[in-house]
Write a structure and sequence with these properties.
Keywords: Signal. This is DUF4232 domain-containing protein. It comes from Streptomyces griseofuscus. Pfam families: DUF4232 (PF14016). The protein has 178 residues and is mainly beta. It has one domain: Sandwich (Immunoglobulin-like). Helix content is 8%, strand content 35%. The strands form four sheets. It has a five-stranded mixed sheet with strand order 2-3-9-15-7, with no helix packed on it. A four-stranded antiparallel sheet has the order 6-5-12-13, with no helix packed on it. β5 and β6 form a beta hairpin. The radius of gyration is 23 Å and the shape is elongated. It starts with a helix and ends in a 5-residue tail after the last strand.
């Protein structure tokens, strides 16, 4: 009965002269589900241009974190990852990074596909007073709209100007896909 109704509806569209494709709702492909932490792998991009210039102190630099879909299905990511830096000094504590003003795109990750996001960093000299610098040790990275994080060891060394209470800090994250 359902197929007869679909055929009748399709015939009505054709008779009306409208060039449209009628597809039964049961045959329409389902949109991919949101990517969950368990669907993903994460890590720092470490090759060539992806390595931040932590030795210079005159300008901001960027580090990149990637997510790869390790599941057996496509999934979507949209928004900002949560990023908490854990410091190596006793005075560092944990710093939850602010978000940029950029608008996040919605990304569909096919099985095995990778997408990244950048962290803009403001390095400082080693001679900077300990209370004014943050020495990253590890990053707790939570995919958008998730509550479970990855723990990534900071591989680049260096120090960042400590602005964990600033309204517009020089160290912040950009959306996934930008």
């Amino acid at each position: 009965m359902k197929h007869k109704l679909t055929a009748v509806a399709l015939a009505a569209v054709v008779v009306a002269g409208t060039a449209a494709a009628a597809v039964p709702a049961s045959a329409a492909p389902a949109a991919p589900a949101r990517c969950h932490t368990a669907d993903l792998k994460a890590g720092f991009a470490t090759g060539g241009d992806a390595t931040p210039e932590m030795g210079q102190t005159k300008k901001q630099t960027q580090a990149f974190i990637w997510f790869t879909n390790k599941s057996k299905h496509a999934c979507t990511l949209a928004g900002f990852a949560g990023v908490d830096m854990v410091g190596a000094q006793k005075t560092d504590g944990t710093w939850s990074l602010a978000r940029s003003a950029k608008k996040p795109p919605k990304m569909t990750l096919q099985q095995g596909s990778t997408v990244d996001f950048s962290i803009t960093l403001l390095p400082v000299a080693k001679s900077t007073a300990p209370k004014e610098k943050f020495v990253p040790a590890k990053f707790l990275v939570t995919p958008p709209n998730e509550t479970t994080h990855f723990t990534l060891k900071w591989p680049f060394g260096g120090q960042i100007l400590k602005q964990d209470g600033a309204t517009h800090p020089g160290t912040y994250i950009n959306p996934v896909g930008l």
